[in-house]
Amino acid sequence: MPGHVVPDVMATQCSPVMIEGSSAMTEAEQRLGRRSPVLSYVMSIPSTPAPATNEADENSTQTSATVDTPETADTPETATAETAEERHARVEADALGFLNQLYAAALRMTRNPADAEDVVQETYAKAYSSFHQFAEGTNLKAWLYRILTNTYINSYRKKQRQPQISDGENIEDWQLARAESHTSSGLKSAEMVALENLPDSDVKEALQELAPDFRLAVYLADVEGFSYREIAEIMETPIGTVMSRLNRGRTQLRKLLADYATERGLLRHEGSKA
């Protein structure tokens, strides 16, 4: 990409279809090929925070990159401790495992495949040059999404809005959502059936009508499953602001999809007979 100087590992990996032989990519591509339930779960989410990440549990399952204290100097663990180069290579490989998810998020932000590739490529370039700042035991995915979001915001401020280019094969990634983590009690069954029968093109159009901040908040919470606290860190905003954006974004998206369903004859007006 012009204007970017990226490590060799990214030379042919700026979009999800450019990696071969990656098991993580194969699984993601398989998910991307399935028809989604068209976000009916988003319509049913109550306005409550997503479960906060239990950092204590996360930290308890992770081991330190190096153990180099007098008490453990002669133990077997010390003999196999990672060098700085090995740790860098491991974190780099772990980061590449999020390539598909980052590209999908970038595509939702930019609504332009070429711009999404640029944002992802720049994100990885920044991440590779900053791995020494990544603290072992913290959330690598959230760290990468924060870089991605900042990269997009900086690019958006410079370019403002680019012409929209729809690419159905790349853009339809809502099946990555974890619908099982949400309740369906917020919608009547008729509404759920109607929304599930909307074509993905309507969902994309409705989502793209949201303001960028609302669209990003909904994506991070309802597709990627980040907690409010994590989204606040990624977007660098107070948790209260995240909650407000999510509530307004979900409300607007629900109304837009209900309007589309009504226009298509899939959902009756409230005054109509069931």
**CATH T-level topology:** Butyryl-CoA Dehydrogenase, subunit A, domain 3
Beta-strand portion reads under 5%
Tell the overall outline. elongated
Separate helix tally:
14
**Can you tell me the CATH superfamily?**
PhyR, sigma-like (SL) domain
Low-pLDDT stretches are: 1-79, 161-189
How many strands in all? Answer: 0
Summarize the biggest pleated sheet. Answer: none
Q: What is the class in the CATH system?
A: Mainly Alpha
Mean pLDDT: 65
Secondary-structure element order, N to C: HHHHHHHHHHHHHH
- Helical percentage: 55-70%
How many structural domains are formed by the residues? 1
Q: Pairing-aware structural class of the strands and helices?
A: mainly alpha
The CATH architecture category equals Up-down Bundle
Pfam families: Sigma70_r2, Sigma70_r4_2
Domain RNA polymerase sigma-70 region: 99-161
Region (Disordered): 46-83
Domain RNA polymerase sigma factor 70 region 4 type: 203-253
Structure keywords:
mainly alpha, Butyryl-CoA Dehydrogenase, subunit A, domain 3, 14 helices, disordered N terminus
Notes on the structure:
With 274 residues, the protein is mainly α. It has a single domain, classed as PhyR, sigma-like (SL) domain (Butyryl-CoA Dehydrogenase, subunit A, domain 3), CATH 1.20.140. It is built from 14 helices and no strands. Helix 6 (99-110) crosses helix 7 and helix 6 (99-110) packs parallel to helix 8 (140-159). The protein starts with 22 loop residues before the first helix and ends in an 11-residue tail after the last helix. Mean pLDDT is 65; it is low at 1-79 and 161-189.
